[in-house]
Write a structure and sequence with these properties.
The complex is a heterodimer of chains A (167) and B (229). Chain A contains five helices and two strands, in the order ααααββα. Chain A has 167 residues and is mainly α. In chain A, α1 runs antiparallel to α3, α1 crosses α5 and α3 packs antiparallel against α4. The chains are: A mainly alpha (167), B alpha+beta (229).
Chain lengths: 167, 229
C-alpha cells in the first residue's frame, strides 16, 4: 500500500483526513455538550440502553467526541484516536440501522436536535444518508489507522504501519 | 521511545509540549463530562413552588383530587409546544378551571438557558396564582429563535406584571433565581420518565397520540374517552 501513495503527499492526505474527522466530531460533540438533557433524550430514543444508562451515556458521549477530535487535530496518539473515532462511527451505524429496521420515528441527534421526528414518521432517506456519511468517516479513520504519519502532528515520530510503527 | 530521538533536535522540549497538550485535552474531557454528570441531577435541597407535587416529579399541580390525571411536558422554547398551545390552550385551561382534570405541568428546560429562566419564572408566577396565565403568555410571546436573548429576568418580571402580578415577592423570586434548581428536578424526572419529545401529554399515564396535538377535535376526543366531559 505504501508504494501506491506518493510519500510526499500521503502525510498531507493524513492531515486532511484527521481534520475532516476531527471537525465532524468536534461539531457534533460541542453542539450536544451545550444541551446535555437533549443529548440524553437523543440516546434514549434509540431504545437500546436502559433509561438510566442511556442518560449517563448521553451526558458523557459529547465529551468523548470532543476529546477524540482534539487528539486528532494535534496529532497525538493518532492511530489510537482514529481507531476510537472509527469504532464510535461503527456504533452509530449500528444504532441508526437498528432504529431504521425497527421503524423508530427518530432523528439521528448526531448534531443535537435528537428525539422523535417532528411529524412522527420514519424518514428512510435521512437514515440512509446518515449511514452513508458515517461509513465515509469510517473509511477516513481506516486510512488514518494505516497511515498515521501526517503533517503538523505533535507525535512527529509516528510511522506508518508497514514500518512496524507502534503509534 | 525511539520517536523523540528520531525526530531530531529538541526531543525533550517536544515531549514536554506534547504531555502538556495531552494533559489539557484530558482535563477538558474529564471536566466537561464530570460537570455534565454532576449538573444534570435533581437537587434535593431545591426550593419548590407551593403547588409542586413531589410524588409527580415536582410538577406544578392543579385539582389534585380530580380523578383523571393529565401530565403536560413542555419546554417554553419548543416551537411544537407553541403550536400545540395555540390549538389547545383554551380547552386545557377551561377543563382545569372547571376542575375536571388533575393537571400536572412539567416545564422542561432541555433547550437551554432561556428555557431554564422561563420555567423558573412560571414557578414564581405559580406562587402568585398565575401559572396558567404565565404559561399561556410565555408561549404566546415565544421568540422565533431559541436562546435569542428575549427572556431576561427584567423582561420576565415585566411579563408577570402585565398579567396582573403585583407582589414584590414575584420580582424577588425571579431576581434571586429561587426556582432555578427546581427546574433540574423537573428535567431529571422527565428524563427518568423517558419523555423524549415535547409536547408530551399523558392522560392517566398513557401518552395521547402525537398526531392529535394539532387537531383539536381529535385531542379533545382523547379526553372525553378518558371520562372528561
Amino acid at each position: 500500500m505504501k508504494k501506491v501513495l506518493n510519500p510526499t503527499t500521503q502525510p498531507w492526505l493524513t492531515l486532511l483526513a484527521r481534520l475532516i474527522l476531527a471537525g465532524v466530531l468536534l461539531a457534533a460533540g460541542w453542539i450536544k455538550a451545550m444541551k446535555p438533557s437533549e443529548a440524553a433524550a437523543s440516546v434514549r430514543v434509540y431504545e437500546v440502553l436502559p433509561v438510566n444508562i442511556a442518560n449517563t451515556f448521553g451526558y458523557i458521549l459529547p465529551w468523548i467526541e470532543i476529546g477524540i477530535a482534539l487528539l486528532l487535530i494535534v496529532g497525538i496518539w493518532t492511530r489510537w484516536s482514529s481507531i476510537a473515532a472509527g469504532a464510535l462511527m461503527v456504533l452509530f451505524v449500528i444504532a441508526i440501522a437498528q432504529a431504521w429496521a425497527r421503524k423508530l420515528p427518530i432523528n439521528c441527534g448526531c448534531f443535537g436536535n435528537g428525539g422523535i421526528t417532528a411529524d412522527g414518521k420514519v424518514h428512510a432517506w435521512t437514515y440512509a444518508t446518515e449511514i452513508i456519511r458515517d461509513i465515509g468517516l469510517i473509511l477516513l479513520s481506516i486510512f488514518i489507522t494505516y497511515f498515521p504519519n501526517g503533517k503538523f502532528a505533535l507525535d512527529s515520530g509516528t510511522k506508518n504501519s508497514e514500518n512496524g510503527g507502534e503509534r | 521511545m525511539a520517536a523523540s530521538s528520531k525526530n531530531g533536535s529538541n526531543g525533550k522540549g517536544d515531549k514536554t509540549t506534547r504531555n502538556l497538550v495531552v494533559g489539557m485535552i484530558l482535563l477538558v474531557v474529564v471536566a466537561g463530562a464530570g460537570a455534565a454528570l454532576a449538573s444534570n441531577h435533581a437537587v434535593k435541597s431545591a426550593s419548590k413552588p407551593s403547588a409542586v407535587e413531589a410524588t409527580d416529579g415536582d410538577g406544578i399541580g392543579f385539582n389534585t383530587s380530580a380523578p383523571v390525571k393529565v401530565d403536560f411536558y413542555e419546554d417554553f422554547q419548543c416551537p411544537h409546544c407553541r403550536d400545540f398551545e395555540a390549538v389547545n390552550n383554551a380547552y386545557i385551561n377551561k377543563i382545569i378551571t372547571d376542575g375536571k382534570i388533575h393537571a400536572v405541568f412539567h416545564p422542561m428546560s432541555f433547550i437551554g438557558n432561556e428555557s431554564v429562566l422561563t420555567a423558573a419564572a412560571s414557578a414564581c408566577a405559580s406562587d402568585q396564582g398565575k401559572f396558567l396565565q404565565m404559561h399561556a403568555a410565555l408561549f404566546a410571546n415565544q421568540a422565533a429563535n431559541e436562546n435569542s436573548g428575549i427572556w431576561s429576568n427584567a423582561k420576565l418580571i415585566v411579563l408577570g406584571h402585565s398579567l396582573g402580578i403585583a407582589s414584590t415577592k414575584y420580582d424577588e423570586c425571579i431576581n434571586n433565581g429561587q426556582y432555578l434548581n427546581w427546574t433540574k428536578n423537573v428535567e431529571d424526572y422527565a428524563g427518568k420518565a423517558n419523555i423524549n419529545s415535547t409536547p408530551t401529554v399523558l392522560i392517566n399515564g398513557k401518552p395521547v397520540p402525537q398526531n392529535t396535538y394539532l387537531n383539536s377535535a381529535a385531542f379533545q376526543a382523547a379526553f372525553s374517552s378518558a371520562g372528561v366531559k
